[in-house]
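General statements about sequence and structure are easier to judge against a single worked case. No coordinates are needed to read the tokens, only the vocabulary itself. The sequence in question and its structure tokens are set out directly beneath this paragraph.
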Amino acid sequence: DPQEDRIMDYVGGQKDMKEKLVRFIGDPEERIKEDHLRILRAIRFKNTYNMQFHPDTYQAIKKHVGLIKNISKERVRDELNKMIMSQTPGQAFEELFEIGALDLIIPELGKLKGLAQPLQYHSEGDVWDHSILALDSLTQEEVDPNPLPENPPTIALKWGTLLHDIGKFDTFSEDEERIRYDHHAEVGSEIATKILKQLKFPKKTIDRVFWLIRHHMMVVPLFQMPDKRKKHWFLEPGFEELLELYRADAMGIKPLDLSAYEGLKKLYRHEIAKLKLMPKQLITGDEVMKLTALKPGKEVGEILKQIRQKQIEGDIKTKKDAKQFVKKTVVEK
């Protein structure tokens, strides 16, 4: 009431907020039938604001959870993105599983529940527990006050972290020595791509998540790589996110050991500072197209990337060298 400067609450919303209660207005079953997305929205509100379901609301959600299948993929995706970008994404995905919604949206993720890990390396629990701990670690700023990247985690990094071990179910094997998941990164990147395509994610996000998951096991081997190979990885556009995924992966393991991450971060910052002092690129995309008659696209970008790599390695030093490399590369193709 603007005249009396007071809120007229006819449905008890303020009381529910004080009691931290999520409750549908009126008949909860009718509210869900009006818009099935309210099931996911209620789960998001509950976990984002650390609330509880009113018993009638909870029963209605459990009863009608199957209606989620009738919601457009785009609307489901948007709600999941809001959950995963919150400060408590793990709680939300735990709730999705408990209520039965996750099996209808991302059944591949639910398969990680109960999937064993080698206890000598993972005392935190099963693969699901590890994945949720890793995801939640991305919002724990106190763990790394100076993270890479410096900006807040992106949608791609969040999804890449949640799904980084999605391939372990299909690659699980066990012998007398230990549990194994051979090639789970390769298998997982394909599964994640399928999931995100079904949820209508943009191609740019799908490609980045694919790349992060595909390469999340190669971070530690960087220590043993030749300097030229290290520089190649350090210049990858997604390397800082890959390193942050590695930190999250380590955060999801008990006992906690971040020594490898800290060493890699220090090495990366040292090397990237030197690389930034290097001369600018020797040739432009327009020049590549004039030399080759190629049209704008990935092929031109790949040639420029190769030239930059060889410039870093010292194999290409002048503009003339760069042009000769372009001509040779196109002829060989």
In short: Strands lie at 21-22, 52-53, 172-174, 179-181.
